[in-house]
Structures are given as structure tokens and as C-alpha cells.
Design a protein that fits this description.
single chain; five-stranded antiparallel sheet; mainly beta; 3 helices; Immunoglobulin-like; 2 domains
Length: 306
């Protein structure tokens, strides 16, 4: 009987092994080429970056003739400055440029509270950057949001990505900090090319002048007639229209010097070879309208009049 029990147990063991062999899956080696292909087609997480269909058209912020200005041309201090943004959705109410130890940063106060972070770079770079590299907003006592970012140069395009609170996406912006919006005290002595630095003696001169800004349709006569008297330089500027009734430089208002023909003004020439901001008021529209322009006088074209 003991022998019969042993035979029964052996038979059961054989049947169990056979059943396992029938139900166990066959492990077929995967070729290396197939595994590599699977890796390349595997879905990857999409970056949190807005595409063209999710953004408004970008505006050009750099104007022809702009030359970058770096911290070594500026004096230490905090200076109000105008910032242009390539996007109407990234509106900057005001900004202060901080200059110290050969470097610049700017604190930008925003018009709204729609952004959680900014990053000094492209949207893809911002998405890949660690959170510690992102710049969060600061909130002042009135609830306004601001961001403080590094500024490499003025009058030069600066890439800046902004992270939308509502969309949870990075949006690309380009910023430009305008040199011509800084007060004169912000610049080190010798930065500007002036009548004095050129050694111009009292007398009459001509120089090429260009007008930029507005719709781009207006122009001024060139070369313009310049007069140097007691070291101060003025220029007679003749617009391509008769519809300008005053020009404003800062708080100073200048009226036309003629009553017929195109509007003419005698304006101070504070410097050469860099844009000089002016505001001209036109009455050509249904009601008077101020337009921001810049004048640029080319020192290389100066000629003394006989």
C-alpha cells in the first residue's frame, strides 16, 4: 500500500508540472531595435508654454538707430524709466531702474495681477528652469504687483517669460528699457555728445536730422539749420505738415515761429547721435492730439555755414 501511495503522489506531481507548462506565458526576447523605437515614440509631457494660437501678435519694441547702453555709462541710484513691452497683455504701469556696482535691475509695477512669475529668458527656458530661478511677484501696501528683474542693457531687447495665473502657461515677452526716458542726472559726465564736447563755436551750422515715432508718416526737413550761441545749440525744425500747434520737451512748451507753410519750431539740441524725445501736438484730427516723437541729430554731418 505504501508503494501505491508513492506512485499516486508522483503522478500528481507530473500532472501539476504539465499544467504549469501549458498556462505560463512564453517570454520572447525583445529585439534591441524594437525597444529603442518604443522609447522614441513614447509620449512626453508637453511644456507649459503658450503657442501662437494662444497669444496676441507681438509688437516691435526696438527702434531703428537704437544703441545699447550699459551700466558703466550710468550713475549709481534709482531712476524712473519707461519700459516698452511686445505684448499688450503684459502692461507695465511704471518702472524704476536700480544702478549699483556696475549692474542694473528694474522693478516693474504691473497694471494687473494676472502673472505669478517672470523669468529672464524664453518661455521654454522658463518652463525647464527650477522654481528657485523663477522670479515671484511682490505685493505693495496698495495691493499692486511688481517684479524685479536683471537688466543687461538699455535700448536693447530683453527676453522675459511670464507665467499666467489663470492659464497656467508661460508666455514670451520682449521688454525694452528706454534710454531717452531717463533724467540727465542718470548719466555719467561725457556720455552725451553735445555742442560743448564737439567744440562748436558760436555761429550757424547744418546737420542731418531724422524724426521717428508716431505713425511713421511725419518727417522733418533735413539738413536742419543749427545755431550755437553762448555754448547753447538750437535747431529750426520744419515738419512735413502745417497742423502742429506746439512742441513740448519735458515741461517746456515751444510755439511755431511761422504763420504760413509747414509748422516750424526753434528747439534746443541737448545732444547729438542719440534720440532726443519730443511731444508734438497736432490739430489735424477731430480734436488736438499729442504724439510722441524723437529727433536725432547726426554729429558726423555737421557743417559750418558761410
Amino acid at each position: 500500500m505504501r508503494r501505491g501511495l508513492s506512485l499516486l503522489l508522483c503522478a500528481l506531481a507530473v500532472l501539476s508540472l504539465a499544467a504549469c507548462a501549458q498556462t505560463a506565458p512564453v517570454q520572447t526576447p525583445v529585439p534591441a531595435e524594437t525597444a529603442a523605437l518604443a522609447e522614441t515614440v513614447a509620449p512626453k509631457p508637453s511644456p507649459a508654454v503658450a503657442d501662437a494660437s494662444q497669444t496676441v501678435a507681438a509688437e516691435e519694441v526696438v527702434e531703428e538707430g537704437m544703441t545699447p547702453v550699459y551700466a558703466d555709462s550710468l550713475t549709481v541710484g534709482d531712476w524712473p524709466i519707461e519700459v516698452r513691452s511686445s505684448s499688450s497683455m503684459f502692461r507695465i504701469e511704471s518702472a524704476v531702474l536700480h544702478v549699483d556696482d556696475g549692474a542694473m535691475t528694474a522693478t516693474m509695477t504691473m497694471s494687473g495681477k494676472g502673472y505669478l512669475y517672470v523669468y529672464p529668458g524664453t518661455a521654454l527656458e522658463a518652463d525647464a528652469a527650477p522654481e528657485s530661478a523663477r522670479i515671484p511677484f511682490a505685493e505693495d501696501e496698495s495691493g499692486a504687483h511688481s517684479f524685479t528683474i536683471p537688466v543687461q542693457a538699455l535700448d536693447a531687447p530683453i527676453p522675459c517669460a511670464a507665467f499666467s495665473k489663470n492659464k497656467a502657461l508661460w508666455y514670451e515677452r520682449t521688454l525694452l528699457f528706454r534710454v531717452d526716458s531717463l533724467p540727465t542726472a542718470a548719466f555719467k559726465e561725457g556720455f552725451f555728445v553735445t555742442a560743448e564736447s564737439l567744440g562748436l563755436t558760436d555761429g550757424d551750422y547744418t546737420a542731418a536730422v531724422t524724426l521717428s515715432g508716431g505713425s511713421g508718416k511725419a518727417s522733418v526737413g533735413s539738413p536742419a539749420r543749427l545755431t550755437v550761441k553762448n555754448g547753447q545749440c538750437t535747431a529750426e525744425i520744419v515738419f512735413s505738415s502745417r497742423n502742429y500747434d506746439y512742441v513740448r520737451i519735458g515741461d517746456e512748451v515751444y510755439l511755431p515761429v511761422n504763420t504760413e507753410g509747414n509748422s516750424s519750431f526753434v528747439l534746443p539740441v541737448t545732444h547729438f547721435d542719440r534720440p532726443m524725445p519730443i511731444v508734438a501736438d497736432t490739430v489735424a484730427m477731430s480734436e488736438p492730439h499729442e504724439i510722441a516723437y524723437t529727433l536725432r541729430f547726426d554729429a558726423a554731418t555737421l557743417e559750418a555755414m558761410p
